User: Fold these one by one.
Assistant:
Number 1:
Amino acid sequence: MSFLELRHVTKVYGDGSSEVRALDDVSLGVDRGGLVAVMGPSGSGKSTLLTIAGSLEEPSGGEVVIDGHSLSEMSHNDKARLRRRTIGYVFQDFNLLPGLTAAENVSLPLELDGTGARRARTAALEALERLGLVERAGHFPDQLSGGERQRVAIARAVVGERRLLLADEPSGALDSANSEAVMRMILAACKTGVAAMVVTHDAQLAAWADRVVFLRDGTVVDQTVPPPSAEALISSGPKP
Amino acid sequence: MSVRHALLGLLSEGPKYGHQLRQEFEARTGDVWALNVGQVYTTLQRLERDGLVASDDEAAEGPQKAFRITEAGAEELAEWLRTPPDLTTPPRDELVIKVLVALAMPTVDVHEVIQAHRRYLVELMQQWTRLKEDEGEFDLPLALVVDAELGRLDSVIRWLDSADGRLKRAVVEPTAPTAAPAPRLRRRLAVRR
């Protein structure tokens, strides 16, 4: 079974004549170690899909199942614990707290979950180390470049025992080298068994995924089939 | 793709044999473009005829014959490197034509046609990205070739996305027909040039 499963998820805002159907019967799954990209233009419902998958918002219909547990059957407290322990979020604008250092930003979710300060700090430094940022651990967000801030946000999303990584346009306004670095980090997390879902309008980003799902007007309209090996591409590739 | 100038580039490092040129060409282009040895020798003969390379006259035709770049060849290479490729004329793009044809056919869902191409292009990009993921960090020429392909495919997808959005808006807010027909594209381009 997939680690994250969305089953017939529907989301409706407003009612009557002002009703907006943001998502309409969306089903998709993300396996452990898998990276799925959801691609669609703005207004297609992809950010709503991500917030519902991350239990930040309730669906109007259908259900979300994470690691075999249906969110609709969980108590408020259980869901809050799931968000703190299991799910890591990465947003376009990084969402780092300006008054905290890089290490404090990363260790905060662990401390909120009851991990002792010293253990949380050790885990945070390990996560920063993995992303090549340990020497910036004591810097505040405004002392970091855009690429470094996003790496801190990814460290925060994967610190501890998080098994589900949800990212909304994770490369934001970063240049292509930094965007590539961000996707390599997300892939590295997947190699350790993390299930990841990235929503984006950017094909260069989506192309890092194992599977790309296309969303239009709140509906899944299409998805890629698993690509053949890269070798096939070269032998059939462009000839001089 | 100018094999001619790529060979001149390799010869600018010093004299080389035909089979060696083929191997180096493939290695330096990330092994993406295959080149057969016959093509190498045909190109070398033309370069020699044009005075851009010279060979060791004593040696017989074949693998033991080494080639070197001439002064005229070096000048030609330097000039070529700095000459922009011709991007001024809009190419007769098959994909654009397919979408235009689909648009004119009332029985065809143009958005579905666009999506079929979008999916295919994203699948191609996934394959190129996989190549970069596996080897791109270690193989610089390959990474450059892959980036070029990804950029090219991405720009086609961006065009499909904007066409998709434009067509959707056109259904919601159809533009009123203008009194005088707009000048044709060809005429407008001709005026600008």
Number 2:
Amino acid sequence: MFLTNTEEIPGKQITRAYGVVSGSTVRAKHAGRDIMAGVKNIFGGELKGYTELLQESRDEAIKRMKAQARQLGANAVVNVRFSTSSVAAGAAEIYVYGTAVSVE
Amino acid sequence: MEVLIQLIFFLILLSAGYLFGKIAEKKHYRSIIERERQWMQIPTSSGRHVFATDKEVQRVRLATGSVVISVDYFKRIVAGLRNIFGGNVQSYETLVDRARREAILRMKESCPKADQIINLRLETSSISKGQKNQVGSVEVLTYGTAVYLSSAPAAKTAKHS
């Protein structure tokens, strides 16, 4: 499965488009991670727990999008876009969407 | 007496934030500058097309990088004061600058063998927005298309110029 965020795949020809596919995850914060975040809040610096959280949810969202594309019979997703938002206090949503296509 | 204790506690937090925050920021900037020099070999653009090459594209893949960085206590207080007087909030400027550059570096580190990265996009948000006890943290996600070129130049009939 090819993934790109350009309209076309360089060096490949798009033969058929299937429409928009998307995947999303909503993740809540972890209590333990939140305590560490509180400490980091005084000293500043990277919140590793949250970075990991973000990464995991992003991978999960991509996985869901890929599954949807595969179901349609596509072998690539072009024009992929990410979008993050906070749904409620302490919960973050990652939404990824793109156009499922066939390439050769 | 209680007021005094609170004041002392506040001052301790303030000075700890100032000291450790400053050290952490300096260290982070040093590492960013060093790694930026190291990863200069991967040209990155926000344009949509493969640029400045006569080689054929071998394969492409999505590259992503992300980071969450928090601001220290001292800077938060300074930013709070800025809210009264207005003007540039410099303490937050360095925060987002660090976060973005770090995220771009992580993206590059995720595909060390790529020849170039095109269509770079940056997404900034905050996990804990809308919370009362606000964490002054920023979350940056960068993504782009990593392009791997073949080692031989393309035939003269190739579309890429």
Number 3:
Amino acid sequence: MSNIPGEKQIKEILNGNEKILKKVYKKVYTHIERYAFGTNISQNVAKEAVQDAFEIFYRQALEGNLSLSCTLETYIISIAKRVIHKEERDWYGRLKDGIDMDDEIDDVDEIVTKQIQEQKHRLFNHEFQKLDSECKTIISLTLEGYSSEEISKKMNFTSEEYTRNKRSKCKRYLIEQIKENPDYEKLRNANTENFELPVWENEQAGEY
Amino acid sequence: MQTQKILNYLYGKMNKQENIKFIQDCKNDSNLNNELNLHKEVDSAIKTEIKVKHFKNQLNTIHNEVFAQKQSKVINLQNKWYWAAASITVFSGTAIYTIARQFQNPDKLFNSYYAVWNPSMTTRSVTSEIELTKIIESFEAKDYGLSLQLINLLSLESQRNPKILLITGCSLMENEKYTEAIEVFDKFDNANYTLYTDAGNWYKALCLLKNKNINKAKSELKNIVKSKGTYSLEAQEVLKKIK
């Protein structure tokens, strides 16, 4: 049993406490490494599974609705084992079999609402990734909390006004692109009654 | 105009009065309100991805700090995959930073991707030769001048040993003698693959980049990508960012 309750660990990890994260990571990886050795799975696969499991946990923690009935290490180990056994997961951390790792969530409407939200987020990020690198950087820096002045300096722009105008143009363009994406309309109008995972336009493996 | 207003509101650029007016406008204008909500949602989604990206970088760093070092103590030199792990150790920090910031200038790219080769994980268990041990020790102590002097004392045949070639090239790089380093890395025989070939080719590409020999650097990087070796991912990233 961990000395720190899961809730406190999660809070610390979300606050960027590397010491706690390292401690949890060490325990999880050591366990999975041994498990992998026993099941003839390569270290690379073990590492990827552990890191995927941490990512799934982190996304859930960011959403703020993670409440555990076991230690955090046990929870992440269980996800890593599922990843190893090729239980496909979607990019946003929910397992495709529809069973959320958080057993506490059993409200179907809530799950569907989450799915709609996740799909929207995928689409937003997909459109964001299509922006040119200058736009991506300026928007990222803004969202990381940098001021216009700091961004101007970092990006060698002539003035703060230029930075603000550029940011505005980039953001407007991004919003336009999102609105023009036919899948956005489907998601915007989706509700818990009629929602089906959309068949993406121009779908390619891993595009969203 | 509307976007600018929304951004000013979201990023705290409005004064109190403007703020109150904007909130009132949103109440009266459902289109504006929807637009504001969409901006908020988009920001939230991108912010999450930024956080996840940082988190993944943090995990990689932790993994390399804790486990790659542990593995190096029992490393099997004949196993190419351990080289992949070693390369992650050496390059992850700089590579991750580069990915995040999208540098494109050759100098910046070089600085972002270059990290001095770390021979410690491979050599101690490999050799008992006194000369070689001294060379490695001086290299690890960052006395690259001494490493080069000691290498010069070796026989010509020993100097062509791939490991020695790699140490020579890296020592020259540390002394900012990139053209000479390229000449050394050119001595790697690609047809006769060794554990050091991938690293040699990678450092050669970085030297070409540093010398602003962009076309040759690109060609070298393309070969690294094609080889699907230890540095193919890094090479691919540099190729994408190169001007």
Number 4:
Amino acid sequence: MTAITAGASAARAGAAKEEPVFYVADEHEHADGGSTLLGFWLYLMSDCLVFAVLFATYGVLGGSFAAGPSPKDLFDLPLVALNTSMLLFSSITYGFAVLEMQKNRVQPMLMWLVITGLFGAAFLGIELYEFTHMILEGATPQRSAFLSSFFTLVGTHGLHVTFGIIWMITLITQVRMFGLTDANKRRLLCLSMFWHFLDVVWIGVFTFVYLMGVLR
Amino acid sequence: MSTKAHTGHGDGGHDDHGHDSGHPESTFKGYMTGFVLSVILTAIPFWLVMSGTLGSNQATAVAILIIGAVQIVVHMIYFLHMTPSSEGGWTLMALIFTVVMVVITLTGSLWVMYHLNTNMMPMDPSQLP
């Protein structure tokens, strides 16, 4: 009798031992930071959704002028073209920085990063000039639904550029202090994706907001 | 030639699970190609709108939207180095999913709100009770 119970409990213990395991028991080696670039790409895709919603908002509200100024009265296309070229130049100079990084040449890489940052700052300066000009003319975000959605969309992009420049300054300092370590290279590649992504968003802005706005 | 080198490197990187995990090397030629194409694709829409060459606004709007979409693809390939094999195909998968979401958000919002606006009865204050 007791022998049978002991046997049964032993069998139960054996069954407990063979419980299925719902996770990978022996994880294989992952290189340090090996998944950072994919993770950062996923962040960019979620950022893309933020911009998609803002674009949709602008698309819906972009025609509600509330008897206020329309895009035709406000947008200065030569200025927008200049702004666009600033961002495009900054994209190619960041590309040159990445090329120098691949050759492990610190000084030329830093020089191209500084040039990229200056182009980015020029872009921001022109955008802020445009915004102040509009606000002084009375075209404030409170004026109409069109202007609210315009300032939200373009302002969010400008805010991204601002943070990109701050990140760039941080990385310039990091590379000057620690050199082109693997971690710094990874960060530079992440910022590269961020920066080119902002240029992609700007294509949408100048096409959908400025050019289509003037056509409206 | 450079694109072949890209995909070749991507496949190799996946095999040895190395430090750059299939991230394609950038080349000077690739960046310059992307830059020249972008300049052309930026200049054309600005010129179309500022000169009004196409005549009708509708035709110009369609043209600049198509050119904008092409330029986004150019940036994706030459600046963001999107290849079907990068990160074992996961970046492309995430991108396709995002594009589907973006298209649904944009067309859905514009379509619904456009119909909402046109189907609403205009009401002037005298009709109010």
